[in-house]
Design goal:
The chain has 59 residues and is mainly α. The protein has one domain: Winged helix-like DNA-binding domain superfamily/Winged helix DNA-binding domain (Arc Repressor Mutant, subunit A, Orthogonal Bundle), CATH 1.10.10.10. It has two helices and two strands; from the N terminus they run E-E-H-H. It has a two-stranded antiparallel ribbon. Helix 1 runs antiparallel to helix 2.
């Protein structure tokens, strides 16, 4: 799996933040939602070095 196939960065979309390709959903929002749920979220969060919103932390 190549992350470029799923994540895009475009200065004209969501102020250049990394988004799920073809959407305006920021990757940081997806990771923050994963982090807030129980389970494998910490492994997802720690595997990808993409910034989370202020106040969010990987466990």
């Amino acid at each position: 799996m190549v992350w470029h196939d799923y994540i895009s960065v475009n200065p004209a979309v969501v102020h250049g933040k990394a988004c799920i390709r073809g959407t305006r959903i920021p990757v940081a929002v997806v990771l923050a939602n994963l982090h807030s749920t129980a389970g494998a979220s910490s492994s997802v969060c720690s595997r990808w070095s993409i910034g989370l919103p202020p106040g969010s932390k990987c466990r």
